[in-house]
Amino acid sequence: MILKTKPADVFKERHNGxxxxxxxxxxxxxxxxxxxxxxxxxxPSAIRLKKPLNLPNALSETQFLKKFxxxxxxxxxxxxxxxxxxxxxxxxxxxxxxxxxxxGWYTAYxxxxxxxxxxxxxxxxxxxxxxxxxxxxxIANASLLDEGTAAAEAMAMFYAQRKGSRKSATRFFVSEQxxxxxxxVLKTRATPLGIExxxxxxxxxxxxxxxxxxxxxxxxAADGExxxxxxxxxxxxxxxxxxxxxxxIMSLTLLTPPGEMGADAVVGxxxxxxxxxxxxxxHAGYFATKDAFKRxxxxxxxxxxxxxxxxxxxxxxxxxxxxxxxxxxATSNICTAQVLLAVIAGMYAVYHGPRRLKYIGVNIYALxxxxxxxxxxxxxxxxxxxxxDTLKIAVESAEMKAAIRTEAEAAGINFHxxxxxxxxxxxxxxxxxxDVKDILAVFAKxxxxxxxxxxxxxxxxxxxxxxxxxxxxTSDYLTHEVFNRHHSEHEILRYMKFLExxxxxxxxxxxxxxxxTMKLNATAEMIPITWxxxxxxxxxxxxxxxxxxxxxxxxxxxxxxxxxxFDAMSLQPNSGAxxxxxxxxxxxxxxxxxxxxHRNISLIPSSAHGTNPASAVMAGMKVVIVKCDxxxxxxxxxxxxxxxxxxxxxxxxxxxxxxxHGVYEESIIEICQIIHDNGGRxxxxxxxxxxxxxxxxxxxxxxxxxxxxxxxxxCIPHGGGGPGMGPIGVVKDxxxxxxxxxxxxxxxxxxxxxxSAAPWGSASILPISYAYIAMMGGEGLTEATKVAILNANYxxxxxxxxxxxxxxxxxxxxxxxxILDCREFKKYGVEVxxxxxxxxxxxxxxxxxxxxxxGTLMIEPxxxxxxxxxxxxxxxxxxxxxxxxxxxxxxxxxxNNVLKHAPHTAQxxxxxxxxxxxxxxxxxxxxxxxxxxxxWPTVSRIDSAYGDRNLICSCAPIEAYNENNNEMVAVG
Length: 972
Ligand SMILES: *Cc1c(COP(=O)(O)O)cnc(C)c1O
Known about the structure:
By secondary structure, this protein is α/β, with parallel strands linked by helices. Among the domains are: 353-471, Aspartate Aminotransferase, domain 1, CATH 3.90.1150; 551-772, Aspartate Aminotransferase, domain 2; 822-941, no CATH class. It is 37% helix and 12% strand. The longest helix is centred in the middle third of the chain and has 39 residues, at 339-377. The chain starts with 10 loop residues before the first helix and ends with a helix. The relative contact order is 0.14. Residues 335-336, 515-516, 575-577, 609, 611, 656, 660, 685, 687, 709, 724, 726 line the site of pyridoxal-5'-phosphate.
């Protein structure tokens, strides 16, 4: 007998949901003969690619992991004592396995649907409390992208909040001892806002200068010296100057917190709380401030509210969707942040608790003292009078500095080499006494002295803090129960699982979020993330130690150029919105280079994502809105009129393709032409790349710049609201302006300043996208796009008899997503929110609610969902439609019904006093598939407005919270 052979591990068959038979059936349901026919009817032929993607042949998972291991091995695992905002740390194994490597955590979405996100919301509130406690501030957000951008956000916030005598001041003082990459990011952000930076020594800063509105200092300073900023801050405050302190979170376990020195804001990174350096990221930047600024804080804040039963419930507070609501009036464009990393850092604090955390701080300090005395014994001068973890060693000559460097690198050690004759050494949690001895051996060898300077075998039991009293922290921190309970591994394991089980993620069901592309995050793609060769690399490690990363960047850049049709890429922006900002800054620099710096109008269609206008304003542009027609397409006549009206000031158009309405606009080529004819450039928001890859491309369409949300199209998981990556691709004449970096050279000849703190943004998650492309190959990627369109059109075919579908292409097809119009149900009191909440009872996360059109749902199934899952979702949606019909037909009450009361918790369903006009079974088991297993929401409908009036953003004990309520209701 003859049997066929075929590889059994073809990755695209794992990534794409439907198999061949399912596809045939789905095509029949849609009413087309073949996938190619569907694509022809959907994607306009004028924009189709003429050639298939030219990418390396697809690898299987096994082949990929083997190949990638050999690339990763080219990164050398040196011990880095470089510091400068990045320090080695120990991620507790229990957290690594159960959060960082656990899809139950990393595949979740941003917690907009709070009732099925209580786990990560609690984890984030822990994080906020931790930041508030350690910094000594009144309120903290749930993370920003990194320390550099957090500092820039503080500057922008202060600028918007200038007051009194400084109302029209435009200068911002920057201590020269702020981290170099932070200064670089501040420069980028300052220019378009019209802010001038004054960089100098804070001890001689002239704060009487009326043109200053704010200041930033670093604590401990970049070279390791610890200054007491109390006087500086007091003087600044007398002049109505606001001060932000960039502070090292670990040092705050021992040092007086900046809040107690009077700081108006404190920013930094929580990287060294268990998050691997990862060659620059991702890590959670933190941002804490005074209560007075609570309504203008950038990013997201988690707060406590109540649910319909009066139980405590968490949700995002206040400016949650700031850009969507305020658009061009938004002060910040933060959308994706660093939730997963904030969760890890917060859990690190929960696990260690205040006592162990303090020991970690003390041990680092004690080792640094040992190192100092050893170096002194070798005859070296140490310049930091007060330090936490960083020494500054004077060396007598450049030759000696070079000799130490050679010796150190031979021993596998990196220090920070100042431009002058100083060497910086920063110790960290992973440093042991033997490491201190190894460091001393390097210095000893160069001086020809004995290496046996440090003869002890264990760290002494005690160490003395040799700081001025004012710098020694006396206040408690992390006193809340959550930080004082989960210290054994069983406790923390169960706590993490307890939280995880409250949330819906991709491990439960499809998350059909339009615009957000929640596709498969394959395990094989995730594996390399926790390899030390990827995770344990300092972003400022010398080039010859990071050849693996170099190859990863080069390959990925060239592949992404192939996919987009562009000439060059920057991997620096660490979110989509940062990509927008970076791209617009590149366009700005381009116009300036041609003596056309006055071009500052950005045309943005009314349907654009809220980050677009927010980014444009950050880049110093004026936003002019372009209308959309009734089919959801850009109104070309209006666009032409505005482009011509502003032809002397036109900077760019920001356009999403396919449009946020889920349609391939036929007129896109003409649209780009109009902009070019009027001297502008075209910025494409690449969030919808999943509908382009292999079929068309931004360059083909006529765009000049485009960001790619690698956490949407290219498989980086959403992490519950970050991390993400938003690299930008550009055409040739924009390449010289791609972002540079103050420490490591990146970007073009005329590079703009840095947009992220790290040279390649969140470098350590790039392997995910690398893996995806390597395992799919050009053909697989193209097929994924086609299947994404197939899946969307299948849902459309199944649901369109039940819900009106807004905006379709001319052949009646949608792109990779579609909008269901729910506005007509308002007549019966049913809001789109009610449908979103009811879906939770069916085990689903809602589609995107009210974007880009209020009162609608935008559904994007992605290619990764098999037909069974699409059917299950359709069954839920159809069943909900029947529930709405009961209200329409008067069989159910408009206020007291199964939708209005959704979601239903087990507690509600089992309560003694069930008095609803529908059955308990209908409430919680409305369809049969739920009987096999069900994710129970743990809270009922949350009252968001209540929480905004009574803002509590830390893990206050419930009693305190109830007491506060009364008091705060009276105020609010
Ligand atoms: C997701 C999204 C963005 C923002 O990207 P982030 O990575 O969240 O900053 C911008 N535009 C559109 C259309 C999006 O869907």
